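# step 3/5: fold
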Amino acid sequence: LRTGDLEGASRMALQAVRLDPADHKAYVVLADVFAGLEGEENHEAARRYFEKALVLFPEDWQAQHRFGVLLQNDGDLQGALEHADRAIALRPAAEYAYVTAADALLWMGRPQEAEHRLRAGLIQVPNSNVLRSLMAYAAWELQDKETTQAFLRELAGVWPPTHSSAVLLQG
């Protein structure tokens, strides 16, 4: 899967499921394969595989998070938030679960809650530039220009000027 061989990854994951129907990791691989494909049918398949994996092993914080990302990408922001929060509860230092939770909250128009999640994330992952960049965005949404500017100053030069994070912060 990591090398981009989706067909090979799905073939091996299906073989793993045939050998051990309780192999939650194989279902996660299948979910990731289908989540990476375009189309509603593929994303529905990804959802089913994530759900199966999490029934078998609900403590898989990475699967919780990645399911949240899929839901977020499909517009189910509340579902994304719930799975991101589960991932955070299982692994408090899961940096990108805080990103998913904050993004969902920001997109739902709840910047104060997003700021709260991000502050909690920065306690767990104090050197996270990604969380800091979202703090700047949340502060902007809260019309707190002073805090926004403070985070932007902290982040100056962290990424090359053409990096997506730098471009977003310039806007």
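# step 4/5: annotate
The radius of gyration is 18 Å.
# step 5/5: archive (pending)
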